[in-house]
Design goal:
With about 325 residues, this protein is an all-alpha fold. It has one domain: Ribonucleotide Reductase, subunit A, CATH 1.10.620. The chain is built from 11 helices and 2 strands. α2 packs antiparallel against α9, α3 packs across α8 and α5 packs across α10. The longest helix is centred in the N-terminal third of the chain and has 30 residues. The radius of gyration is 20 Å and the shape is globular. The two termini are about 30 Å apart. The C terminus is likely disordered.
Amino acid sequence: MGSHGDVLADRQPPDRLRKLGVEVRPHLPQPGDIVVRRIPFDFPDDVEPHWKSDEPEWSHMVNGASLTMPYLEPFLIDSMREAMHLVEDSRIRQDARGFMAQEGQHFRIHRRYNELLKAKGYPELALIEEEMQKSYDRMRDRRSLAFRMAYSVGFESMTLGLTSWLVEERRDLFCNADPRVSSFILWHMVEETEHKRVAFDVYQAACPGYWMRAVGVFAGSLDVMRWSRRGYIAMLKKDGLWTDWRSRLRLWRRGIQFIRHVMPFLLRSALPGHDPSREPDPAWVREWIEGYALAGPTDAVRLVDTSSPEMPPPYSAPTTQHDRPTLHSP
């Protein structure tokens, strides 16, 4: 089992505490720590479904994935909550609570974004949402807890490969894209990295068994891919692009990239000795996490500069002692 960290919550912004005469030195989260952040992402009417205007296919691949989150992530939370009762290790239970809190933040913001998509010309997505809800309800009713937790492990394994791809290839995938959508997606990936081991640890503690876990790796990841694909095909058809051969080539290009990056993570996660805590965190993700901790919570959302050649994290750790906050945490 992997090492465990702490579950942390956003605290008051340093500037607010300075006014109260309180000295604060932010805690720098370590790998394994889970931070529950409440970042006020907003999607006003000028956010377009083609948030990467030169590549509607990639925009809709991401939009299709977003469509699944308000149905997938409550399913993960419900499975985790049920499995927690079988876990004796207090640290794993604490991590599970952090996992559920982060996933709760994710699906609520995805739901707001998905409402924008439907309002911006894709109302037929509601039919896919209804089918997803029924599918996850059936799994809750008919599948064992062991299968549902293995499914959760499978999805979380896929997100490790997805995060690696999105972060390493961010200059290509998000170049000149809408920074509001890009920042939201990358934040989600940052937090998936933070809780990467939790579903695995809870599964091992509550209902261990290699073969069910191996099945779950592919059942969970392929099912989410299936629903995501349903979503982006519906949107591309609405745009009149599904039968355009140039559009299909652009879509295949991104699909091949996705498989090339994600498949090694899935294959490793299906091995008997797999432990997700041994998968290293991308450096960009660690810089985002540490920079956010040093900046402190704020009512404003810092956005990734998608016009930058390097596209650094919006929260970057200060490089000099002078730049670092000198406050001590109460």
